[in-house]
Amino acid sequence: GVVVTAIGYETHQAVGDADIDIVKVALQLAKNKTVAIAAEDTDILALLLYHRTTNISDVFFVSARRNRMNGKCISIAKVQERIGPEACRAMLVIHALGGWMRRIGVSLSP
Questions:
Q1: Nearest Cα to 23, choosing from 51, 42, 3, 53?
Q2: Is the model's pLDDT at 41 over the cut of 80?
């Protein structure tokens, strides 16, 4: 993709679904500095929880969704620490199943 740098900010243009590109760039940048991603898409949150390793800086997910989570800043490192490595390794499956269950009308709420 195209990279544009202006006033200390980098902008990357993705072709097609950008989720993987966004996470890839964030994790690459986190090798040298703390990174924040503002996004509406929880796919990005799941990908960060799955792919972030402990040998890089923290990455923050800032919810841009217009609901009760709007503006909430989530430390990926802290969530990974709380849920543990097994849950992080299973995160993509957990996320996919949750989306599938919502689509077919299955609720886990009592």
A1: 51
A2: yes
Q: At what angle do helices 42-51 and 19-29 cross, to 10 degrees?
A: 40
pLDDT in tens, 47-103: 999 999 999 999 999 987 666 656 689 999 999 999 999 999 999 999 988 887 777
- Cβ atoms 12, 20 nearer than 8 A: no
- Side chain identity at residue 86, one-letter code: E
**3-class SS letters over 67-91:** CCCCCCEEEHHHHHHHHHHHHHHCH
How many helices (H) and strands (E) the chain has is answered by: 4, 5
How far apart (Å, rounded) are the C-alpha atoms in residues 94 and 73? 22
Q: Which amino acid is at 35?
A: V
Phi-psi region of 71 (alpha: psi -120 to 50; beta: other; left: phi over 0): left
Unique residue bearing structure tokens 């009592």: 110
Phi, psi of 15 (to 5 degrees): -100, 125
